[in-house]
Amino acid sequence: MVEKANDFIIKKGDNVSVFYKGTLEDGTIFDSNEGKEPLKFEVGSGQVISGFDEAVIGMKAGETKRISLSPEKAYGLPRKELIIKVSKKQFGENEVKIGMAATSSQGHRGLITDVVGEDVIIDFNFPLSGKTLKFEIKIASINR
Q1: Which pick of 5, 21, 26, 144 has the fewest CB atoms within 10 Å?
Q2: What local confidence, expressed as pLDDT, does residue 10 receive?
């Protein structure tokens, strides 16, 4: 029996093209490629978060699936060592407010989460770490 491309069931090593919409638990969309080019990746290669990678295995072209990923299967849990306290003096004359972006001397981007007296707390964790993510995934194509 000869398998047609649209009958392929996705397995590790396949190259797939997918459309997706990612939302937080409250329904806020954090990313989507709807109306754009599909995301292309090799299944199992680590190019996408592990839960997304695992979710497409067993799907067929044209199939749609909704998934919910725990932080461990998405961007991980926040790491305490990536939350640092610095002196407000490091910002010079610039105004410092909660919610502002900050960049480390190594070029890492963080978010100011608190200002207490002369101390500024900056969180350098990825913004989606610690969050449960929901995805709607549609397989556009499978290439072997």
Answers
A1: 26
A2: 97
Tens of pLDDT, residues 134-144: 999 999 999 98
Other C-beta atoms within 10 Å of 107: how many? 6
Residue type (1 letter), 67: I
pLDDT at 39: 98
**Strands (DSSP E) along 74-132, which ranges?**
83-87, 101-103, 109-116, 119-123
Bridging pattern class, strands 119-123 and 109-116: antiparallel
The answer to whether 84 and 113 have CB atoms below 8 angstroms apart is no
What domains does the chain contain, in order, with CATH numbers? 5-76+134-143 (3.10.50.40), 80-123 (2.40.10.330)
